[in-house]
Write a structure and sequence with these properties.
alpha+beta, 320 residues, 10 helices, Jelly Rolls
Protein backbone atom coordinates (compact mmCIF):
# COMPACT_ATOMS: atom_id res chain seq x y z
CA UNK A 1 0.00 0.00 0.00
CA UNK A 2 1.39 3.38 -1.04
CA UNK A 3 2.32 5.80 1.72
CA UNK A 4 0.49 9.13 1.48
CA UNK A 5 2.65 12.27 1.57
CA UNK A 6 2.82 14.17 4.84
CA UNK A 7 0.41 17.08 4.53
CA UNK A 8 3.09 19.74 5.02
CA UNK A 9 4.81 18.35 1.93
CA UNK A 10 1.73 19.11 -0.20
CA UNK A 11 1.60 22.63 -1.65
CA UNK A 12 -1.90 23.87 -0.69
CA UNK A 13 -1.76 26.75 -3.17
CA UNK A 14 -1.35 24.33 -6.06
CA UNK A 15 -4.11 22.09 -4.72
CA UNK A 16 -6.79 24.76 -4.33
CA UNK A 17 -6.06 26.57 -7.60
CA UNK A 18 -5.92 23.63 -9.99
CA UNK A 19 -8.20 24.72 -12.83
CA UNK A 20 -9.29 27.74 -10.76
CA UNK A 21 -7.34 30.71 -12.10
CA UNK A 22 -9.52 33.31 -10.41
CA UNK A 23 -8.64 31.82 -7.04
CA UNK A 24 -4.93 31.84 -7.93
CA UNK A 25 -5.22 35.52 -8.81
CA UNK A 26 -7.08 36.32 -5.59
CA UNK A 27 -4.55 34.47 -3.44
CA UNK A 28 -1.59 36.14 -5.16
CA UNK A 29 -2.94 39.69 -5.04
CA UNK A 30 -4.03 39.30 -1.42
CA UNK A 31 -0.66 37.87 -0.39
CA UNK A 32 1.26 40.71 -2.01
CA UNK A 33 -0.97 43.34 -0.37
CA UNK A 34 -0.37 41.81 3.05
CA UNK A 35 3.37 41.63 2.48
CA UNK A 36 3.47 45.26 1.33
CA UNK A 37 1.56 46.33 4.44
CA UNK A 38 4.41 44.91 6.56
CA UNK A 39 7.42 45.68 4.38
CA UNK A 40 8.92 48.03 6.97
CA UNK A 41 10.42 44.76 8.23
CA UNK A 42 13.50 44.05 6.01
CA UNK A 43 12.73 40.32 5.88
CA UNK A 44 9.21 41.01 4.60
CA UNK A 45 10.52 43.62 2.16
CA UNK A 46 12.78 40.93 0.68
CA UNK A 47 9.75 38.68 0.16
CA UNK A 48 7.91 41.52 -1.60
CA UNK A 49 10.88 42.07 -3.89
CA UNK A 50 11.07 38.41 -4.92
CA UNK A 51 7.32 37.80 -5.10
CA UNK A 52 6.22 40.82 -7.15
CA UNK A 53 7.73 39.78 -10.53
CA UNK A 54 6.21 36.30 -10.19
CA UNK A 55 2.78 37.81 -9.53
CA UNK A 56 3.20 40.25 -12.43
CA UNK A 57 4.06 37.35 -14.73
CA UNK A 58 0.83 35.60 -13.74
CA UNK A 59 -1.22 38.79 -14.11
CA UNK A 60 0.14 39.35 -17.62
CA UNK A 61 -0.38 35.74 -18.66
CA UNK A 62 -3.97 35.85 -17.43
CA UNK A 63 -4.67 39.20 -19.08
CA UNK A 64 -3.12 38.12 -22.39
CA UNK A 65 -5.29 35.02 -22.55
CA UNK A 66 -8.42 36.95 -21.62
CA UNK A 67 -7.55 39.54 -24.25
CA UNK A 68 -7.52 36.85 -26.93
CA UNK A 69 -10.76 35.40 -25.59
CA UNK A 70 -12.33 38.87 -25.63
CA UNK A 71 -12.97 39.11 -21.89
CA UNK A 72 -10.29 41.65 -21.01
CA UNK A 73 -10.33 45.18 -22.46
CA UNK A 74 -7.40 46.75 -20.59
CA UNK A 75 -3.93 47.44 -21.91
CA UNK A 76 -1.45 44.56 -21.86
CA UNK A 77 2.32 44.95 -21.92
CA UNK A 78 3.88 44.51 -25.36
CA UNK A 79 7.04 42.56 -26.11
CA UNK A 80 8.79 45.82 -26.91
CA UNK A 81 7.86 47.30 -23.54
CA UNK A 82 9.06 44.18 -21.74
CA UNK A 83 12.37 44.21 -23.61
CA UNK A 84 12.83 47.86 -22.62
CA UNK A 85 12.11 46.91 -19.01
CA UNK A 86 14.64 44.08 -19.29
CA UNK A 87 17.38 46.32 -20.65
CA UNK A 88 16.82 49.08 -18.10
CA UNK A 89 16.06 47.10 -14.95
CA UNK A 90 15.94 43.33 -15.23
CA UNK A 91 19.26 42.54 -16.91
CA UNK A 92 21.33 44.83 -14.64
CA UNK A 93 19.62 43.20 -11.63
CA UNK A 94 20.33 39.67 -12.90
CA UNK A 95 23.94 40.54 -13.59
CA UNK A 96 24.28 42.06 -10.12
CA UNK A 97 22.98 38.90 -8.48
CA UNK A 98 25.33 36.69 -10.50
CA UNK A 99 28.40 38.93 -10.10
CA UNK A 100 27.81 39.12 -6.35
CA UNK A 101 28.73 35.44 -6.14
CA UNK A 102 30.89 35.17 -9.27
CA UNK A 103 32.91 38.26 -10.26
CA UNK A 104 32.55 39.42 -13.84
CA UNK A 105 35.07 37.62 -16.03
CA UNK A 106 35.33 34.58 -13.74
CA UNK A 107 34.72 31.14 -15.26
CA UNK A 108 31.34 30.76 -13.54
CA UNK A 109 30.17 34.21 -14.64
CA UNK A 110 31.33 33.53 -18.20
CA UNK A 111 29.40 30.24 -18.23
CA UNK A 112 26.23 32.16 -17.38
CA UNK A 113 26.93 35.12 -19.69
CA UNK A 114 29.17 33.64 -22.42
CA UNK A 115 28.41 36.51 -24.80
CA UNK A 116 27.68 39.20 -22.24
CA UNK A 117 24.47 41.08 -23.04
CA UNK A 118 24.57 40.35 -26.77
CA UNK A 119 21.97 37.49 -26.80
CA UNK A 120 19.49 39.74 -24.98
CA UNK A 121 19.90 42.63 -27.45
CA UNK A 122 20.42 40.97 -30.84
CA UNK A 123 18.56 38.45 -32.96
CA UNK A 124 14.87 37.78 -33.41
CA UNK A 125 12.35 38.22 -30.63
CA UNK A 126 12.25 34.46 -30.23
CA UNK A 127 16.04 34.28 -29.86
CA UNK A 128 16.08 37.03 -27.25
CA UNK A 129 13.24 35.38 -25.32
CA UNK A 130 15.10 32.05 -25.48
CA UNK A 131 18.22 33.74 -24.09
CA UNK A 132 16.20 34.66 -20.99
CA UNK A 133 15.08 31.04 -20.59
CA UNK A 134 18.63 29.70 -20.99
CA UNK A 135 19.93 32.06 -18.31
CA UNK A 136 17.08 31.17 -15.94
CA UNK A 137 17.63 27.43 -16.40
CA UNK A 138 21.38 27.78 -15.75
CA UNK A 139 20.82 29.83 -12.60
CA UNK A 140 18.27 27.28 -11.34
CA UNK A 141 21.07 24.68 -11.21
CA UNK A 142 23.16 26.82 -8.85
CA UNK A 143 22.05 26.92 -5.17
CA UNK A 144 23.41 30.47 -4.86
CA UNK A 145 21.24 31.67 -7.73
CA UNK A 146 17.93 29.91 -7.10
CA UNK A 147 16.20 33.12 -6.01
CA UNK A 148 17.21 35.09 -9.09
CA UNK A 149 16.32 32.11 -11.32
CA UNK A 150 12.69 32.45 -10.18
CA UNK A 151 12.76 36.12 -11.19
CA UNK A 152 14.29 35.30 -14.59
CA UNK A 153 11.94 32.40 -15.41
CA UNK A 154 8.87 34.40 -14.36
CA UNK A 155 9.96 37.18 -16.72
CA UNK A 156 10.52 34.60 -19.47
CA UNK A 157 6.93 33.38 -19.10
CA UNK A 158 5.75 37.00 -19.16
CA UNK A 159 7.59 37.82 -22.41
CA UNK A 160 6.60 34.53 -24.02
CA UNK A 161 2.95 35.24 -23.23
CA UNK A 162 3.20 38.78 -24.63
CA UNK A 163 4.77 37.39 -27.81
CA UNK A 164 2.02 34.79 -28.18
CA UNK A 165 -0.58 37.56 -27.82
CA UNK A 166 1.23 39.64 -30.44
CA UNK A 167 1.06 36.71 -32.84
CA UNK A 168 -2.42 35.60 -31.77
CA UNK A 169 -4.66 34.03 -34.36
CA UNK A 170 -7.62 31.99 -33.23
CA UNK A 171 -7.93 29.05 -30.86
CA UNK A 172 -4.38 27.83 -31.48
CA UNK A 173 -2.99 30.99 -29.90
CA UNK A 174 -5.50 30.70 -27.06
CA UNK A 175 -4.25 27.18 -26.29
CA UNK A 176 -0.66 28.47 -26.22
CA UNK A 177 -1.67 31.26 -23.86
CA UNK A 178 -3.57 28.81 -21.66
CA UNK A 179 -0.42 26.73 -21.35
CA UNK A 180 1.64 29.82 -20.46
CA UNK A 181 -0.92 30.88 -17.86
CA UNK A 182 -0.72 27.42 -16.30
CA UNK A 183 3.08 27.69 -16.17
CA UNK A 184 2.73 31.09 -14.50
CA UNK A 185 0.17 29.68 -12.02
CA UNK A 186 2.55 26.93 -10.96
CA UNK A 187 5.39 29.42 -10.46
CA UNK A 188 3.07 31.69 -8.47
CA UNK A 189 1.93 28.86 -6.22
CA UNK A 190 5.46 27.61 -5.69
CA UNK A 191 6.57 31.10 -4.67
CA UNK A 192 3.66 31.47 -2.21
CA UNK A 193 4.51 28.06 -0.75
CA UNK A 194 8.14 29.16 -0.42
CA UNK A 195 7.05 32.39 1.26
CA UNK A 196 4.89 30.41 3.65
CA UNK A 197 7.97 28.39 4.62
CA UNK A 198 10.00 31.58 5.15
CA UNK A 199 7.22 33.06 7.27
CA UNK A 200 6.89 29.85 9.30
CA UNK A 201 10.55 30.12 10.17
CA UNK A 202 10.30 33.82 11.00
CA UNK A 203 7.27 33.31 13.24
CA UNK A 204 8.12 29.83 14.54
CA UNK A 205 7.53 30.99 18.13
CA UNK A 206 4.04 32.24 17.20
CA UNK A 207 2.95 30.28 14.10
CA UNK A 208 -0.57 31.71 13.94
CA UNK A 209 0.99 34.99 12.74
CA UNK A 210 1.65 33.32 9.38
CA UNK A 211 -2.10 33.42 8.69
CA UNK A 212 -1.89 37.23 8.59
CA UNK A 213 -0.16 36.96 5.21
CA UNK A 214 -2.66 34.76 3.36
CA UNK A 215 -6.40 34.62 2.76
CA UNK A 216 -7.00 31.43 4.72
CA UNK A 217 -10.66 31.34 3.67
CA UNK A 218 -9.55 30.78 0.07
CA UNK A 219 -7.37 27.89 1.18
CA UNK A 220 -10.11 26.03 3.02
CA UNK A 221 -13.52 27.37 1.97
CA UNK A 222 -16.22 24.74 1.48
CA UNK A 223 -19.25 27.02 1.41
CA UNK A 224 -18.99 28.71 -1.97
CA UNK A 225 -19.00 27.55 -5.54
CA UNK A 226 -15.56 27.23 -7.11
CA UNK A 227 -15.30 27.52 -10.87
CA UNK A 228 -12.88 25.24 -12.71
CA UNK A 229 -11.72 25.49 -16.31
CA UNK A 230 -11.20 22.24 -18.19
CA UNK A 231 -9.51 21.98 -21.58
CA UNK A 232 -10.76 19.90 -24.49
CA UNK A 233 -10.01 16.18 -24.40
CA UNK A 234 -8.46 16.38 -20.95
CA UNK A 235 -8.62 15.20 -17.35
CA UNK A 236 -8.62 17.62 -14.42
CA UNK A 237 -7.79 16.45 -10.89
CA UNK A 238 -10.13 18.40 -8.60
CA UNK A 239 -8.81 17.13 -5.28
CA UNK A 240 -7.07 14.26 -3.55
CA UNK A 241 -9.64 12.16 -1.76
CA UNK A 242 -8.00 10.04 0.95
CA UNK A 243 -10.61 10.09 3.71
CA UNK A 244 -13.84 8.05 3.55
CA UNK A 245 -16.80 10.38 3.29
CA UNK A 246 -14.82 13.18 1.58
CA UNK A 247 -17.06 13.11 -1.50
CA UNK A 248 -20.41 12.90 0.27
CA UNK A 249 -22.35 16.15 0.02
CA UNK A 250 -20.11 17.76 -2.60
CA UNK A 251 -22.12 19.43 -5.35
CA UNK A 252 -20.95 19.72 -8.93
CA UNK A 253 -22.46 21.64 -11.84
CA UNK A 254 -21.72 21.46 -15.58
CA UNK A 255 -21.41 25.03 -16.95
CA UNK A 256 -21.02 24.10 -20.61
CA UNK A 257 -23.76 25.68 -22.77
CA UNK A 258 -26.65 23.40 -23.62
CA UNK A 259 -25.94 23.68 -27.33
CA UNK A 260 -22.48 22.15 -26.82
CA UNK A 261 -23.94 18.82 -25.62
CA UNK A 262 -20.68 18.28 -23.69
CA UNK A 263 -20.96 15.52 -21.09
CA UNK A 264 -18.59 15.62 -18.11
CA UNK A 265 -17.43 12.40 -16.47
CA UNK A 266 -17.03 12.48 -12.67
CA UNK A 267 -15.07 9.67 -11.00
CA UNK A 268 -12.21 8.67 -8.71
CA UNK A 269 -8.94 7.31 -10.05
CA UNK A 270 -5.63 5.82 -8.98
CA UNK A 271 -3.79 8.83 -10.47
CA UNK A 272 -4.47 12.51 -11.03
CA UNK A 273 -4.38 11.96 -14.81
CA UNK A 274 -6.37 8.72 -14.81
CA UNK A 275 -9.20 8.60 -17.35
CA UNK A 276 -12.87 7.69 -16.90
CA UNK A 277 -13.18 4.15 -15.58
CA UNK A 278 -16.92 3.72 -15.88
CA UNK A 279 -17.48 4.05 -12.10
CA UNK A 280 -18.97 7.41 -11.18
CA UNK A 281 -21.50 9.81 -12.64
CA UNK A 282 -21.99 11.89 -15.78
CA UNK A 283 -23.22 15.47 -16.02
CA UNK A 284 -25.09 16.96 -18.97
CA UNK A 285 -24.72 20.69 -19.78
CA UNK A 286 -26.41 22.78 -17.07
CA UNK A 287 -26.96 19.73 -14.84
CA UNK A 288 -26.13 19.82 -11.12
CA UNK A 289 -25.74 16.83 -8.79
CA UNK A 290 -24.88 16.21 -5.15
CA UNK A 291 -22.34 13.43 -4.85
CA UNK A 292 -22.81 10.19 -2.96
CA UNK A 293 -19.83 7.87 -2.60
CA UNK A 294 -22.15 4.93 -3.25
CA UNK A 295 -22.22 6.13 -6.89
CA UNK A 296 -18.48 5.63 -7.30
CA UNK A 297 -17.83 1.98 -6.48
CA UNK A 298 -14.32 1.67 -5.08
CA UNK A 299 -13.06 5.05 -3.83
CA UNK A 300 -9.63 5.80 -5.27
CA UNK A 301 -7.24 8.53 -4.05
CA UNK A 302 -7.90 11.07 -6.84
CA UNK A 303 -11.19 12.83 -7.63
CA UNK A 304 -11.12 13.62 -11.37
CA UNK A 305 -13.32 15.20 -14.03
CA UNK A 306 -12.88 14.29 -17.70
CA UNK A 307 -13.95 16.24 -20.78
CA UNK A 308 -13.96 13.93 -23.80
CA UNK A 309 -15.14 16.63 -26.21
CA UNK A 310 -13.18 18.91 -28.51
CA UNK A 311 -14.32 22.02 -26.63
CA UNK A 312 -12.89 23.71 -23.51
CA UNK A 313 -15.31 24.94 -20.86
CA UNK A 314 -16.11 25.24 -17.17
CA UNK A 315 -17.77 23.48 -14.26
CA UNK A 316 -18.39 24.43 -10.64
CA UNK A 317 -17.87 22.51 -7.41
CA UNK A 318 -19.14 23.31 -3.91
CA UNK A 319 -18.11 21.66 -0.65
CA UNK A 320 -14.49 20.70 -1.32
Amino acid sequence: MATLPYRFFINPFLSVTTGNYKRALSLGVDHKAKLVANQIDPEIAALVFSFDPVLQSYLNADQNLNSVLGTYKGKTQTVEELFELMNKEKLPFWEGQVFFYYPKGSSNATTLFPQGRKPFHNGTYEQQIQAIKVLGDKCALDPNLLAVSVNILAFHTQTLSARALQQSDGEGAAETLRSLRETARILLCQEMYGNMGALMRKYRANPVTVSNYFDITLLRSKNSWEEFEINSNSVLNVKNNNVPGDLNGIKIRNLFPAASAVILYIYTSTSETGVWNGQGITLAPGEEKELDENDFGQINPFFNVQNQSGFPGDFEVKGL
